[in-house]
Amino acid sequence: MGTSFPNSKTLYVFSLLVFLASFSSPSEAFANETLTQCLINHSQPSHPITSAIHTPAESSFSTFLQSYIRNLRFNTSDTPKPTLILTALHESHVQAAIICAQKLSVQMNIRSGGHDYEGISYVSIFSPFFILDMLNFRSVDIDIEAETAWVQAGATLGEVYYGIAAKSKVHGFSASVCPTVSVGGHFSGGGYGNMMRKYGLSVDNIIDARIINVNGEILDRESMGEDLFWAIRGGGGASFAVILAYKINLVQVPENVTVFNVSRTWEENATEVVYKWEQVAPKLHEDLFIRLVMDVFNRTAAREKTIRATFRALFLGGAQRLLSLMSDSFPELGLQSSDCHEMSWVKSTLFLRKSDYVKQIIPKDGLELIWKRMIKLDRPMLTFNPYGGKMGEIPANSTPFPHRAGNLWKSRPFTCPAAHLSSPNILPVPTQ
Question: The pTM is what?
Answer without folding.
Answer: 0.76
